[in-house]
Write a structure and sequence with these properties.
Length: 266
Amino acid sequence: MDYYDSHLHLQDPAFTATLQELIAESRTLGIIQQWVNSTSPSDWCAVSDLYSAYKGIVPFFGVHPWFSQNLSDSWYDELCRYVKSGFCGIGEIGLDRWKDGLDCNIQEEVFLRQFKLASELRRPVSIHCLKAWDWLEKVLARFKGAFPPFIVHSFGGSYQDMLKLLDYGGYLSFSASLIRSKRLQEVCCRLPLERLLLETDAPDMPLPVGVDFSGAVENYGGDKINSPLNLLCIYRFVADLRGIDMAELCGILADNCKIIWKGVDA
């Protein structure tokens, strides 16, 4: 069976010492694609290098809302060069009211410039949203361009948020946070399977401590850092949650991923 990790950060320093082994083991387990999202101009080169070095890496270039405040004047031109240079998506971009000290106007401006670029180039977008669901929905409602394929990663919203995002053509990706939340499990059960994706968000979103997962990889540093190899545990959890065969789930998610990238030159 083939597995797709729709959002993680392999460029993170937490993986530097074991990166080659982690990617090799991922392929051995059947994880054939890992969508590696950047966070700011400082790691775009590292993500690009991963794409060049390893088969199965899908690069995303973008500015995370936490890093939107003090960008250089050239950040957008630099982003355009990366995005136009080859196969990639745009991400991780988004809106955030959880972290203190972020200017909402700057966040929205940076988000919209990147979302518009994705619309113009028809590139998939990975969206971060924390405590900003109403804000994200209002911004999307005002958007005048054609919507690019977009994924709301590590979805944590309500059922009503899900419905609004589906209306815009969005896909929802769930991480291990799903395992901790009965509310999210109810949302996942009501999500059309053709809009579902799964992710690790490694090194973030570790599996819950104290829950027995067959095949789980021990988290680095106790429960602090998540392994990319735990993707299969999330797949198994969702297959059981939705009451479908693991092979069927793998096939559905593979089809969803291929639809998102349809028309983007590899």
